[in-house]
Amino acid sequence: MHKKTMTTFWTLALGLLTAAGLSQTGTAHAQDEEIKIGFAMFLSGAAAGPFGVPARNGAELVVEALNKGEFPAPYDGKKGINGAKITTVFVDEASGEVVADYRKMVQKDEVDLVIGYISSGNCKAIAPVAEEVERLTLFFDCGTPQVFEDVVTDPHYLFRTGAHATLDSVGAARYLLADKPDTGSIAGINQNYAWGQDSWRDFTAAVEALKPGVEITTEQFPKIFAGQYGSEISALLTNPADAVHSSFWGGDLEAFVLQGAARGLFARTDVILTTGESAMHRLANQMPEGTVIGARGPHGVFAPEGPMKAWLEKAYMDRYGVRATYPTYKITQAILAAKSAIEMAAGDSMGMPDQESVIDALEGLEWETPSGTVRMGIANGHQAVQGTAYGRFKYSNGEATVVDMTRFDAECVMPPDGMDGLEWIESGFKGAEDC
Amino acid sequence: MLTYVAIVLDGLVYASWLFMVSVGLTLIYGVMKILNIAHGSLYAIGAYTAASLVGAYFSAGYVPVLSFAVLVGAALAAGLVCGLVIERGVLRFMYGQDEVLMILVTYAIFLILEDLIKVFWGVSPYFAFQPYGMLGNFDVMGLPYAGYDFLLMGLAGLTGLGVWWSINRTRTGHLLTAVIHDREMSTAMGVNVKRVYTVTFVIGATLAALGGAFTAPKISVTPGIGVEVIVLAFAVVVIGGLGSIGGAMIGALLVGILRAAAVHLLPEVELFVIYAVMALVLAFRPYGLFAAPEARKI
Questions:
Q1: What distances in angstroms separate CA A283 from CA A68, A268, A308, B39, B206, one per listed residue?
Q2: What tens digit of pLDDT does each residue of B154-213 get?
């Protein structure tokens, strides 16, 4: 071979090999890129069955689908999050060491962000710690408005991707009075702790604001996890009201439905269960038809029909053999918020961008979910706002569903930016007079 | 008037349940001087076993009315297995130890059982609602009550009567009484105290499981139900006097009626009333209503 030809050959070969090597290095780099998410939900205790397990199952399902690029549009562009594989760490919210577990996820496991917390008490405990350790944290389910109204009033690292509890109570009051405008009396049975007390306070305030003068016949606050409600049901029957409100959840909700239905309470009065959707498929025909139920947002049977809902329902049923309920929808909503913000912040770069740019992207973010469009609308863009829906339970052809559904826009059930929930209700729903 | 009738009936229903869940606890303490913290877990295992068996029974399409027998069978199976395993496997090695140490031992068993429940049944709720609706409703002055609640009242009465009769009217009961009064003297007189202990613990465990099994149709059987029960059962037996069957009955009635009255007349104090009664009784009778103070032997 000619010397010049030989030189050209070797140069070309070397160049090709180098290019191939570089290309291989690049591929390996893309595969190695990871975004680690720490998840916290109840994996044991009374809240695991109705909330924690559906949330964990949903997280596993959605993460797997995103990693494979199988999640429906508009999330079918980049695999994982921004091309990086999502890896997960799960901790049990019922461990009794909720703050220590959170710190461990951040400091030892070095997660890029935390998504978690069902209990309002745990959210109140974690909120200041998230700001202290300066790690992006998304609350996905807990309801107490106190998180941004009292505990962390100027959040930076902390976000909540689901609506807070004002939505549930205001939505319930609006549904009741729109459906039964002649309602003259109400009664309540709620668990004796922050969630039950706040829910009843907001519900009665909303009813009073919408229809002044409605009488309260009895207010029952049994201990959480009491399980036996015979006396309370008698009190509700001997102090009859046009509607009974309950924010019971989990085993308490199911026991109340079983005992109340057997004693004819549901046949004598309208019963509103603000978390009823989480139990409707399990209770099936044990839930009396006509019971007013909510899903703490437009989740589950209340979610608008679309490809994302269809995918989630089918994938969940195929894998777990049961219907997806609202905790599954809410954790999906949180994961998709993280994906949207990270990809928006990253631009053309690969993997996890710097945390500050993700926070910038999350503030005021608007993103699509199986439950519709959600917006980080209040608490300086750190608290999500979305509409909700209520309907009446119906069991037909072996399937639990809802009829007479009414949807409420976000501005009709959640306060505007800068106003506390109760303050907004007592102002006569300032800015939402046309709802 | 209706309110007062409701207070009495609700109080009796709740008292029946309280007695069912506390009679085993007081029996075991009376004979063995062991405050069995694992009692709550035995209640939960009874409820889970009943829920599983009732579910399988109805799935198989058997005669509905016999599901009550399934509840009893579930309690017997759970009580016998767990009672024997706990007593033969752990407690028999600890007899003669300080009562406080025995509380710690049964607390450890309680923690283990709570985790085992999760291993066997998971964390999702179980239901056994079918028997609950089978007895229909009864109207009392226009106030509907589930027939099942009256069944529970009858069962509690029968259980109390059965335990009382067994202790006071049978030879085994007399041996039990002898052991209660003086374990060493009974041993010296030829009573097989170890066997008495085994039988007592198994009966106590079965009574706990029976409480759980007959509660299962009214509730959603979920992790943690045993924790709630042990606190209430403890309050009831302390009011009545640890180790007193009659005391447990009176304690259950007192708590049941007063709680029902609070729910109907002053709901704000409902949480407080059980512990207020306990505090009041202990202030005047530190050993409870029906337990006599014990003289030190040395």
A1: 35, 20, 26, 29, 29
A2: 999 999 999 999 998 999 889 888 988 888 899 999 999 999 999 999 999 999 999 999
pLDDT digits (tens, 9 = 90+) for A129-156: 999 999 999 999 998 888 998 999 999 9
Q: Per CATH, which fold does A33-164+304-385 belong to? A: Rossmann fold (3.40.50)
Residues from A in contact with B at Cβ < 8 Å? 43-46, 48-50, 52-53, 192, 218-223, 225-228, 230-232, 234-235, 237-238, 250-251, 253-255, 258-259, 262-264, 282-283, 286
Half-sphere exposure of B10 (CA within 13 A, CB side): 30
Cβ distance A156 to A373 under 8 Å?
A: no
H or E, element range at B273? helix B270-284
Each residue of A251-305: pLDDT tens digit?
999 999 999 999 999 999 999 999 999 999 999 999 999 999 999 999 999 999 9
- Asked whether the beta carbons of residue B146 and residue A48 sit closer than 8 angstroms, the reply is no
Domain A166-295+387-426 has CATH 3.40.50.2300: yes
Shortest CA gap B63–chain A (Å):
20
Instruction: Give me the DSSP letters along B245-261.
Output: HHHHHHHHHHHHHHHHH
Interval A395-423: pLDDT, tens: 988 899 999 999 999 999 999 988 889 99
| Distance from C-alpha of A254 to C-alpha of B220, rounded to nearest angstrom | 6
How far is it, in rounded angstroms, from Cα A219 to Cα B269? 12
User: Taking each helix axis from N to C terminus, what angle separates B67-89 and B39-59, rounded to the nearest 10 degrees?
Assistant: 140
Burial of B298: CB neighbours in 10 Å, binned 0-12, 13-18, 19+: exposed
Q: CA-CA distance, B255 to B232, in Å (whole number)? A: 10
B143-146 and B137-140 strand pairing = antiparallel
Q: Which of B127, B164, B122 is nearest to B19 (CA)?
A: B164
Within B135-192, residue ranges assigned H as helices are 147-169, 171-181, 183-188
Strands A292-294 and A270-273: parallel
Secondary structure (3-state) at A416: coil
Q: Where in chain A is the domain with CATH 3.40.50.2300?
A: 33-164+304-385, 166-295+387-426
Packing angle of the helix pair B245-265, B270-284 (nearest 10 deg): 140
Contacts with A221 from chain B: Cβ below 8 Å? 267-268, 270-271
> Distance (Å, rounded) from C-alpha B242 to C-alpha B230?
14
Q: Which residue has the tokens 């949180």?
A: A334
> Closest by alpha carbon to A347, among A364, A363, A360?
A360
Helices (H), A211-323: 230-238, 250-262, 265-268, 277-283, 307-320
Report the C-alpha gap between A181 and A246 in whole angstroms: 19
B123·A230 Cβ contact <8 A = no
In the structure encoding, which two tokens stand for residue A339, read together? 């994906």
CATH of B2-284, one of 1.10.3470, 1.20.1260, 3.30.420, 3.60.21: 1.10.3470
Cβ-nearest to A238 among B2, B132, B146: B2
User: What does the pLDDT average to over A32-60?
Assistant: 92
The span from the CA of A278 to the CA of A327, in Å, is 8
- Residue A368 zone, left/alpha/beta (φ > 0; ψ -120 to 50; rest): beta
User: Two tokens at A366?
Assistant: 């608007």
Interchain CB distance below 8 Å, A227 and B215: yes
